[in-house]
Amino acid sequence: MQLYDSFNNIQPSRFTAVGVTRLAETAICQEEMRFGSLAAETLTAGSLRALAVTVLLPVLMLPLLRTVGLRVFSMASETYTPGSLSAAFVTCPNDTVAKTLARGIVENKLAACVNIVPAITSVYEWQGKIEEDSEVMLMIKTRSSKVPALAEYVRSNHPYEVAEVISLPIEQGNPPYLKWIEGVVPE
């Protein structure tokens, strides 16, 4: 519409081929600029977001999908014999004893990892009386074949007359983690 108006406003004295061409170019440029700003406004309104999501989302998701895929493949391709590893539990009277035992257990290759769980409360019967004490718990990850040596180490280094050492077989878990335990603790 604006292009048509520009041609209607041509003055006869300026009516030459060069003048018409320049006038037409000017009108077309103005129309393109007007259309371009409309297009930019429209794109900014919603289409630009959609375009960004469509283009950027797959690009940003690719590393995540690759990592998840590698982990799933890793977990599926690892083999583990249920029960060949154990989680053992030992209670300690305080943090100092817990840390000393934990360090000794790991240094002697009796376990790959010992978690120290602070501030547990134990209620138990001892010498005919019900007792309640604050304790610290060790959660120990090791080979099942190492549990007897672990129990012997704890009995030899623990201040309690009867130290708690119990273990449960690990039936399932993250295969790379289980493999790590097997790699750290010799048979």
TrEMBL record:
User: Keywords on this record?
Assistant: Signal
Q: Does the keyword Signal apply?
A: yes
Tell me one GO biological process term.
Answer: intracellular protein localization
Tell me the PANTHER family matching this sequence. Answer: DIVALENT CATION TOLERANCE CUTA-RELATED (PTHR23419), PROTEIN CUTA (PTHR23419:SF1)
Q: How does it assemble?
A: Homotrimer.
Similarity section? Belongs to the CutA family.
From the Swiss-Prot or TrEMBL record, give the protein name. Answer: Protein CutA homolog
Q: Which organism is it from?
A: Pagothenia borchgrevinki
